[in-house]
Design a protein that fits this description.
single chain, mainly alpha, 2 helices
């Protein structure tokens, strides 16, 4: 029983297997971390594009409102000038 559990780890084959599994696990973790970081980055870029487009639309709307207000003042001042 002792040999089955404790002396097996010292064999060169078992050490190689442990090393290979450790390196494989580390590589998998690096890839998963990179994938999560990329997904987060692209999600933030997509959100920024949406916010940027919303700001452009808002500026156009404010510009339209300012033009309408200026037109209203112009028309009102013309009416009172007559």
């Amino acid at each position: 029983m002792y040999n089955a559990f404790w002396n097996n780890w010292a064999s060169p084959q078992r050490v190689g297997e442990i090393y290979a599994k450790t390196v494989s696990n580390f590589a998998d973790n690096v890839m998963a971390t990179s994938r999560i970081a990329n997904n987060t980055l692209f999600a933030n870029i997509g959100a920024y594009k949406t916010i940027g487009q919303r700001q452009i639309d808002d500026v156009k709307e404010f510009s339209r409102m300012a033009a309408n207000t200026a037109r209203t003042f112009e028309n009102t001042s013309r009416e009172f000038a007559k």
